[in-house]
Write a structure and sequence with these properties.
Elements (H helix, E strand, L loop, with lengths): L3 E9 L86 E2 H4 L9 H17 L3 E9 L6 H21 L7 E7 L19 H6 L5 E11 L1
Parallel strand pairs: 3-4
Antiparallel strand pairs: 1-5, 2-5, 3-5
Length: 225
Amino acid sequence: MKASRLILSMFALAALSVANVASAHEVANTGYLIDSQGKVVKNNFGECWKTGYWTPAMATAECDSSLVKKEETKKDEPMAAAAPAEAGPSKPAFAAITLQAETLFDFDKAVLRADGKKTLDTEVVEKMKANPQVEVVLVTGHADRIGSDSYNQKLSQRRADAAKAYLVSQGIDSKRIETASKGESEPVVACNDIKGKVSGKNKKLVECLQPNRRVVVEVKVQAQK
């Protein structure tokens, strides 16, 4: 009798809306999202968050060790015979990138933009249709700390719901999509060094907090031994 297990994989979909201005807490050309302490941002599963311009050439041993050429084993050190690895189920071919809120929505809005719909088409719709083993997609909205907690909670929920509604309109079964809202409770960056009032008029703060305004997609895959 076949036993099934749930494999939880996270991909955080990101495309920075400000193409020509680097964030105050992101190191250019690293290919990975960097927090305010200069460390690579990782999700709950220890996977590094890639930027929209990441390429395999930017891979690091910390984040993508399989893509980094390993040092040759010293000839004078004996090599133990490796046991054959058990064949496991293949993972869905989803890119580990992050969808910034500004890629999908205008600032402080929850209506999908035309380019946001195109991004969802290529990054989610096509890949869900090509990977029927994907059972459930959890779309979670996140916000920055500008505004009240209650407002940000509702805004991030409206954005998650808008993303779900579009996916359903493109033929994805609504039962395969769940939504959640985290508001401002799970920030990626703090930007405490930015001076000025905490408001949407503080352009430097708005730009710095951009990584916090995001939509995260969590995928549950039903695999069988």
